[in-house]
């Protein structure tokens, strides 16, 4: 599956040029959308100012915990994590609080998104503070109130806006992926498992996931829902490529089988292909895995005539899964509105 060195060098140059163009496009749109900027730049300041009141009012902010440099599969592969603990106060009488201890949602963010304090000092980032990692965690907490929500920050933010998930999938500096099949020594599944295990220990959650092992390393009731947004979907795509190999590995198969749902939210990256998985054999494995598949898109990604391949690949992804007997849920949001970055972000609230 590997490309020749010459082909890869050529593609890297093309991707770099395309990514720079995308970056300038984002800057231009952000600068012109003044009404959005006014809204997003003021909200987090109010939230920061009220932080002292959270402990008294029981605000969801009190349940947020930032974990820096959490190691994954090996000590050199680290990611920052943001944890929003499950809202156990809202469980019903028939749902004991222990039922949420090992139900987790993991979110992989897109470009520009970062921690609030880092977005606030960047000209582009400050325009979109309402989509900071903290705000997204709180949004997901309302969507999944009985689960722990983990936001995985990309290990690198090139030029403070291009998210790069090279700890999960081989990528260039702009975050365009180079997908590969499962490897027991380097891959998205093994890194995620170790990252969550160390994160749970750091956060002092009860009954943490073990970094290795078969069924005995998985705590009772453990389940995972994975959500990728925009660039973050490259992590989900890599997992689809690894799925068959990971399910055959006795050390990882039980962990992989704990994944109940995969959500693709308006996937996109600066490469010229593989925005959505189109390999039929790979998609056949996904269709037979039993995982619930969800695809939520907006015209910003799938109806852009300058990136027509995104819409074609999305259609192929859905059609192929259906041909193999899967029933992916799918929805085109904001169909009757002009494509915009604002609506691209809003899919996080609407899915």
Description:
The chain has a single domain, classed as Rossmann fold (3-Layer(aba) Sandwich), CATH 3.40.50. Strands 1-2-4-3-7-8-9-10 form an 8-stranded mixed beta sheet, with helices on both faces. Strands 5-6 form a two-stranded antiparallel ribbon. The protein has 351 residues and is an alpha/beta fold. α7 (233-248) crosses α9 and α9 (280-287) crosses α11 (308-323). The protein has 12 helices and 10 strands. β1 and β2 (78-84) form a beta hairpin. The model is unreliable at 1-57 (pLDDT under 50). It holds the Pfam family C2orf69. Residues 37-62 are annotated as: Disordered.
Give the mean pLDDT: 85
Shape by Cα distribution: globular
CATH architecture verdict: 3-Layer(aba) Sandwich
Largest sheet: 8 strands, mixed
**Radius of gyration over C-alpha positions, nearest whole angstrom:** 20 Å
Brief digest:
The chain is an alpha/beta fold.
Descriptive key words:
about 350 residues; alpha/beta; 12 helices; about 40% helix; disordered N terminus; C2orf69_mit
Layout of helices and strands:
Layout: H1 5-32, H2 34-49, H3 51-57, E1 64-71, E2 78-84, E3 103-108, H4 116-119, H5 133-143, E4 148-152, E5 156-158, E6 162-164, H6 188-202, E7 223-229, H7 233-248, H8 253-256, E8 259-265, H9 280-287, E9 292-297, H10 299-302, H11 308-323, E10 329-332, H12 341-350
Parallel strand pairs: 3-4, 3-7, 7-8, 8-9, 9-10
Antiparallel strand pairs: 1-2, 2-4, 5-6
């Amino acid at each position: 599956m590997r490309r020749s060195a010459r082909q890869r060098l050529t593609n890297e140059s093309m991707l770099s040029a395309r990514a720079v163009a995308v970056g300038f496009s984002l800057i231009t749109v952000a600068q012109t959308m003044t009404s959005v900027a006014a809204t997003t730049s003021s909200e987090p300041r109010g939230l920061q100012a009220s932080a002292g009141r959270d402990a008294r009012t029981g605000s969801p902010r009190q349940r947020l915990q930032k974990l820096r440099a959490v190691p994954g599969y090996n000590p050199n592969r680290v990611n920052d994590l943001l944890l929003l603990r499950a809202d156990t106060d809202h469980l019903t009488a028939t749902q004991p609080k222990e039922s949420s201890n090992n139900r987790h949602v993991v979110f992989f963010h897109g470009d520009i998104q970062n921690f609030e304090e880092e977005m606030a000092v960047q000209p582009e980032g400050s325009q979109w503070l309402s989509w900071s990692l903290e705000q997204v965690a709180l949004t997901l907490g309302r969507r999944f109130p009985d689960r722990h929500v983990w936001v995985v920050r990309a290990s690198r933010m090139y030029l403070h806006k291009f998210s790069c998930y090279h700890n999960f999938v081989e990528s260039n500096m702009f975050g365009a992926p180079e997908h590969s099949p499962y490897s027991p020594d380097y891959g998205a599944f093994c890194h995620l498992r170790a990252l969550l295990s160390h994160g749970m220990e750091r956060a002092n959650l009860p009954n943490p996931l073990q970094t290795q092992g078969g069924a005995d390393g998985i705590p009772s009731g453990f389940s995972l829902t994975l959500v990728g947004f925009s660039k973050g979907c490259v992590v989900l795509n890599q997992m689809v490529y690894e799925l068959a190999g990971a399910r055959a590995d006795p050390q990882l198969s039980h962990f992989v089988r704990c994944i109940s749902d995969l959500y693709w939210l308006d996937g996109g990256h600066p490469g010229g292909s593989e925005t959505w998985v189109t390999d039929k054999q790979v998609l056949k494995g996904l269709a037979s895995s039993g995982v619930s598949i969800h695809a939520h898109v907006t015209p910003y990604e799938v109806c852009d005539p300058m990136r027509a391949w995104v819409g074609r690949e999305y259609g192929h992804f859905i059609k192929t899964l259906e041909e193999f007997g899967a029933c992916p849920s799918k929805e085109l949001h904001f169909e009757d509105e002009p494509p915009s970055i604002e609506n691209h972000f809003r899919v996080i609230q609407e899915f």
